[in-house]
TrEMBL record, chains A, B:
Example GO biological process: tyrosine biosynthetic process
Keywords in alphabetical order: Amino-acid biosynthesis, Aromatic amino acid biosynthesis, NAD, Oxidoreductase, Tyrosine biosynthesis
Pfam family membership, one: PDH_N
Protein name from the UniProt record: prephenate dehydrogenase
Protein's UniProt keywords contain Oxidoreductase: yes
Top class in the EC scheme: oxidoreductase
Pathway assignment: Amino-acid biosynthesis; L-tyrosine biosynthesis; (4-hydroxyphenyl)pyruvate from prephenate (NAD(+) route): step 1/1
């Protein structure tokens, strides 16, 4: 394993994810490199500067400032909405040093890889796609925490073009935050997260939507209790972000949604037929799997041989 | 409002729900009536006796003990699985004093009312259907708490045959535990809970089932995080109980499931068409409704004029 060190790190979008990386590297790993935050405007990163999360604030729309920001950068992290990946990379490309490694934090990967190939051409070799699996209910740089990534998973989806040292350097950066780093292909990544993250969000939004459409919606909400609360917690998530995720990961998400609809149709038939044995067997399987998942520590997979 | 008092309360099934009522009336409301716990066998209520939650333990299958238990009872609460309502009431009927009021704690009501009419005939006037909306992840009398019902809702579904005083007495009993009491018809009750409780359980079980059926199930579970955790918490619920609820509330549940499937089909079409505007509008409506629900205090409806 390589130790991570850097002279200059550039973060595009210093919110919860980018800000927590900066704080983790500085406060948790004790690293002293220079951290530059880039926003759509200098104002949008002013708060990060004020909080001391970054050393320098730059505006993306100022070519000279952008050139200075990127000069001599070891690592660039894109932590802006996924839909901005291609325009951002196109904006960065002219100023990108040959030795700089670019990575991202987007929650979908096939679309990000396509955007990177389109914007960077042959220099896509400098781009290592990544996805830290971490979040909080609050967002923005004020919510950033140095320990956000401790014991969390980060997935890297290395490209054939990437030099192994480039991938290892990004892996070392995330390990320095306390995360476990895993590698998989971008299509595998997108299938996995369509299933365990994107689909549940769609299902949760759909339940609230369905109740809203009912003539007795207010009565129903009045008696919603703990089960509803947990099931719909993710329906309070950002509409813009989840709109983008659904579209960016459309193919994998539709496949999972169709498989889910099939299971639901089987459950419907069992309920309609009062087939208690079939319902109990399915519910019992789910309960055991959910309990085993919980007992393994949920998201944490200590000693997982896939963690590098 | 009537104050509640009792000389003798008989609880069939002294687990979390029945045990918490006993503890609330004694420890929270300071009432000193005699509390009799009845189980399938005397042994099944021995723990409740040992903990001091009840004063006397009786076995349901011992006719003489059952007769003694029911003699002079003010209130009888059925807190056994819903499917046992009819056999239990049939067993109780021969020993039921004319002045005793029977109520229940079942999470479905149309089936319970049908069972009560069948088992009690004209004496169904003595039966006031009820549903306390409270629970914990743990079950059994060891999990019973005197404050389980504080600020929670209890729904009563009075029958045309019930004397108003009988309904009011059961309402007063639940108010003494700290709960807010609401009244609605059994069909209204079953629609409301099919929507906000039974359907989410089915949807949550179905997600875990769908992942289990995938060839890469273990990989998917490995990367399941916070969204999955909240969404599937209720998939760890009792398979037997939810099997019974699904069948008991079949008609209302299927109606909600079909309405949900329609919403899901619309979401599918929007994702397939990359219709970001439609997705964002729906997600935003859900988010606002979910946040408003949370801000109103979730399950608590302080000052709700429907609370009596």
């Amino acid at each position: 394993m390589t130790e991570f060190a850097f002279n200059k790190l550039v973060i595009f979008g210093v919110g919860l994810i980018g800000g927590s990386l900066a704080r983790a590297l500085r406060e948790r790993a004790g690293l002293h490199g220079r951290i530059v935050g880039v926003g759509r405007s200098a104002q949008s990163v002013a708060r990060a500067l004020e909080l001391g999360v970054i050393d320098v604030a730059a505006a993306c729309d100022d070519a000279a400032a952008l050139a200075r920001a990127l000069e001599g950068a070891d690592v660039v992290l894109l932590a802006a909405p996924v839909a901005q990946t291609e325009p951002l990379l196109a904006r960065i490309a002219p100023f990108l040093d040959a030795r700089t490694i670019v990575t991202d934090a987007g929650s979908t990967k096939s679309d990000v890889v396509a955007a990177a190939r389109s914007a960077l051409g042959a220099r896509v070799a400098q781009f290592v796609p990544g996805h830290p699996i971490a979040g909080r209910e609050s967002s923005g740089v004020d919510a950033a925490l140095p320990e956000l990534y401790v014991d969390r998973n980060v997935v890297l989806c290395p490209l054939d073009e990437n030099a192994p040292e480039a991938v290892e350097r990004i892996a070392a950066m995330w390990r320095a935050t306390g995360a476990a780093v895993h590698r998989m292909s971008e299509s595998q990544h997108d299938r996995v997260f369509a299933s365990v993250s994107h689909l549940p969000h769609v299902l949760s939004f759909a339940l609230v939507e369905q109740i809203l459409e009912a003539p007795d919606a207010q009565l129903k909400f009045s008696f919603a209790a703990g089960g509803f609360r947990d099931f719909t917690r993710i329906a309070a998530s950002s509409p813009e972000m989840w709109r983008d995720v659904c579209i960016a990961n459309r193919t994998a998400l539709l496949a999972e949604l169709d498989a889910y609809t099939d299971v639901l149709a089987r459950f419907r038939a069992a309920i309609d037929a009062s087939d208690g044995a079939a319902l109990e067997a399915a519910f019992a399987r789910s309960r055991v799997a959910r309990q085993e998942w919980q007992e393994r520590g949920g998201t944490r997979i200590p000693g997982d041989p896939a963690a590098k």
